[in-house]
Design goal:
There is one protein chain. It is built from 16 helices and 7 strands. Helix content is 35%, strand content 5%. Strand 4, helix 13 and strand 5 form a beta-alpha-beta unit. It is mainly α.
Amino acid sequence: MVLPPPWSAPVRKRRKILTVSTAVVAAVTLPLLMSPVVSAAGREDDDESSRATRLYVPPPDRESYRQVARLAWRGDFRDSAGLLAMVRTPQAIWYGDETPEQVERLVRRTTLSAAWQGKLPVLTLYNVPGRDCGSYSSGGANGIAAYEAWIDAVADGIGDRQALIVLEPDSLALLPSDCAAAADPDPAGQTDQTDQTGQTGQTDPAAQTDQNDQADQNDQTGQADQTGQADQADQTGQAAANEPPAAGEQPAELPPLPDAHASTAPPTGSAAPGTAQETAQPANPQPTAPQPTGPQPTDPPSTGPQAPGQQSTSPQTPAPDPSASQSPAPEPSAAQPSTLPELPPLPKPDPVTPDPDGATGTSDPTDVTDTPEVEDPETAARYSEINYAVDVLTALGHTAVYLDAGHAGWHSVSSIVPRLIKAGIDRATGFALNVSHYQTDQDSAWYGRLISSCLAYADEGGDPEDCADQRWSKRHARRWLRAHAPGDSSRMKHFVTDTSRNGRGPWIPRLGAHVDAEPWCNPPERGLGRRPTTHTGDPLLDAALWVKTPGESDGRCLRGTDGPLDPERGTVNPEAGEWFPEQALELVRYAEPAVGVIRRTTGPRH
């Protein structure tokens, strides 16, 4: 009998049937065969799991089961079993972009299923207008009214059943007022916006104090110079003051002077580098000849933050008090040209511009919560949206609501605490840390303790600017905690952390390897972290959760290029929220603690 060639149609058909059948059998039988191992992997973090709240396991992504089947068909049973253990671990269910009718139906289905199993579902709500500053996860509801209707639908879907809610990740750590900074390709753009000039929270006030002291030491000299300039301007006319000198004139005789009434420069260090700096320059910034009334500054004050080295190289160009430059110049004194007559009261600084005295502790503490960001309409709407969600969801009676607080490598404590207060943290259960990020458990626990202590301190009337910061040394921070933090954890706000992908901590890219490294976006060789549990051993940490679905992509991750490839991985990454097989395998292989899917149950064979 002559056998058909291997490329014939009947052989190809039989091979296809065999392949599909094997994949289906593997996908069906592996969950049954591995269920004891998966259960053990879910409990390995907690030997007293019977005392902890049981968390709900949602149906896995279909693509994850397809990947499990493909790995098993190739004979890669270790990775297949590890991946299966990962997708069958309790994790959050994300909702966003659905219509109110759709989200109500889906949330009701999830909470009913969890209640039937006697487990607690974790719901992540991600539909706030303008989310992610239009980046890889852009989207959200179309305005406040649409968002409130969506939140009402979520509440109707939950009903009187239990749920743990992580409310709008990145909604407070990435406000609309932060979007311009987020678009900056500078890798430091994700650091605290209020702490750009120093390495720790202690060095920034000192640097600003030095600038203020420099301004105070030269205040009278600067005012005398303005007096002398005004005298010269009266003698030569306003035209000479507003126009540059002719080509044949000597600059030493009469340099052009800027209008004393036109300066609106903010205090040094109050704006981003380069902000409005060009408009502060005079028409001809040439140095002037010494005047009888004293030395004159050669350049106008810079509006951006300056390093100490920049000030020390130009001691002859002090930065006068900006509020003084905004007030009318006093009448010159002919009898005492080198002395300054009594000045009129200084105008109150603009509330958006930090008070130069704020670094020395003389600013009004009631204005502290208004200074971290500009209150533009979009930011004000964001606070209104989060407050509405807090009120609606906490009123259900069986929900725990946690607000976004970023992560330990982003905002300082004094920056995030005012945002939490404005968003209604006093009515919420607590706050969530490290959602979709990679900070270690130790850093997140310390950061959470500092935030919780600062919230309690502010609730008693303290100034959040005085709170201990995560960049302080542990010795100084503990000293502050002993002096100001409540001893009873029940009087403090609790928090939850996302441990889904932090097994190896944050990714540190090679210096200069990318225009914008985007270390938060599908970083390579990261691993699963601590298994989800509500038995944490920390009185302030309510739960370690897998909030981000491990295996789902963060986005294209172009890292400052035109794409479409991720320059770090050399591949086209899936869109945000889609299954990413390569990253899923990395999370299993680099998990810490390791995924225990292969365990020896008998002695070695002889």
